[in-house]
Structures are given as C-alpha cells and as structure tokens.
Amino acid sequence: MTSHSLVIRRLSEALQRANSKASIRWKYSSNSPREAAVLALLADARTDTTATKEMRIEDLGVVLTVRAAGLRRHAGEVSLCGGAVDATDENAVAAAIRETHEEIGVDPRRLAILGPLPSVPDHTFETRVAPFLALVVGGAQNASSSTSATPPNASPAIARFDKLSLVLSPNEVESCFVMKIADLLDSGNQAFEQFRGNAQLRIPTWYGPNNERIWGLTAYIIDNMLKTVIQPAINEQKNNS
C-alpha cells in the first residue's frame, strides 16, 4: 500500500470513529435554519524542495481562500470553500463541491469526499453550516466525484497544492493559500479566543503566510477537525511506524 493510500485510509478511519461520538448540540434561531456547506479541503502541502519519499499526514495542508473585498458579507475574511445550498443542489455535499469548483476552479472529479464533520451555526445562528472532509487527488482519471464516505478505489495520489493551477473567481476570491497541518498543530502558532461568546469554548486562531487571520467559524471547523480526526490519525501513524 502506498503512503498516499495509508494517509487516506487513516484519515477515513479516524473520521468514522469521530462521527460515532456525540458532538455539541447547537440551538438555532429557528427550527428550519438555512443550509450551507463547506469543504475542509486537504492537499499535499509539500514543494519540490520539501517533498520526501513517504507522505505523512503532517505533510497535508488545509486549502483556504481570502474572500473578495467587494462581497457584501465577510469581505476580506479567510474562509473554507463553500456556500449556500441551492434548490438545484442534490444535497449539502453537492453544494460544497459546486462552490469549490466555482470559487477556485478545482475539477469536481478531483475531489475525494471522506465524510462529514459536525455542523455548526453561522454567527447569526440562522444558518447551519455542514463541513465535509475532502482531499484533492491526482489526475482526473483516478479521481472520483462520489459523495460516499469511501475514498476512490484506485488509491490516487494526493495532489500537490502548488501544482493545482487554480482558477480563482474574481468576484468571490481574492487569493488562495494552504496551511500545513504541522504548522496548525504547532502551539507556537496559536492564539486563543472565545467562540460565539462562550467562555467555556475557546478556539485557536492562526495567521497565514501573508498574515491572513484564520478565526471564527473557519477556525472552529479546523480546530475540531484537528482534534477529532487529524491528531488521532497522526497518533495511529506513529504507532504503526
């Protein structure tokens, strides 16, 4: 089994274990909140100078965008790819895949969806945001647009972020960058703040390569993913190395 296949398998298994446990039950402002969906999208964050023979989970990075300055809401903020679920979308994950293609130009066939992360409200508590853990994989011939929790059987290579040739939507996205898992887990890169005004719920904030501030809902989703999926998968990796 290739190192890429091992990474995908460990992430999938850690996600399945995390989804079997209870998460926070949020109270929304209505019984029928609006629906939105995002991708916690991972790519190979190595470059030609840092790539090694064997891929490890720490080599992955989270793909993030800076929202365009002209947007009416959250202009200039760091965000995961995604948006509102439209009536024409088959389901929430289909909306996240569509929005990712529209925002940064990733071919849906190159998105391997591993499964859902816990939903969380937006700052108004009127919208339920459904995150999904996903990978950008190699050539389209090996990729899958399946929305099941099973990664592609072809065991594709996880795509290098610096090789993606992204096409950004100028009306929606100012820039796109990747934050390496190893850097996100480094306590020296973290500052903490309350989330949703809850003194009992403190989450880290980070800064990107050009001082982009990662905070709020995006930081909450990333922090939860790191704690419940990424770190357990890394622990398994260490135990089996």
Give a structural overview:
- This protein is of the alpha+beta class and 241 residues long.
- The protein has a single domain (3-239), classed as Nucleoside Triphosphate Pyrophosphohydrolase (Alpha-Beta Complex), CATH 3.90.79.
- Helix content is 24%, strand content 28%.
- Strands 1, 2, 3, 4, 5, 6, 7 and 8 form an eight-stranded mixed β-sheet that branches.
- α1 crosses α4.
- The chain is globular, with a radius of gyration of 17 Å.
- Residues 140-153 have low confidence and may be disordered.
Q: Care to give the gist of this entry?
A:
The protein has 241 residues and is α+β, with helices and mostly antiparallel strands.
Features:
three-stranded antiparallel β-sheet, Nucleoside Triphosphate Pyrophosphohydrolase, 4 helices, alpha+beta, eight-stranded mixed β-sheet, 241 residues
SSE string, helices as H and strands as E: HEEEEHEEEEHEEEH
Percent range for helical residues?
A: 10-25%
DSSP E strands, number: 11
Largest sheet: 8 strands, mixed
Distance between the termini: 14 Å
CATH architecture verdict: Alpha-Beta Complex
What is the CATH first-level class name?
A: Alpha Beta
Number of domains: 1
Please tell me what the overall shape is: globular
Estimate the mean pLDDT confidence: 90
Based on CA atoms alone, the radius of gyration comes out at 17 Å
Structural class: alpha+beta
At the fold tier of CATH, the topology name is Nucleoside Triphosphate Pyrophosphohydrolase
The low-pLDDT segments are 140-153
Strand content: 25-35%
The CATH superfamily title: Nucleoside Triphosphate Pyrophosphohydrolase
Number of helices: 4
The assembly state of the depicted protein chains is single chain
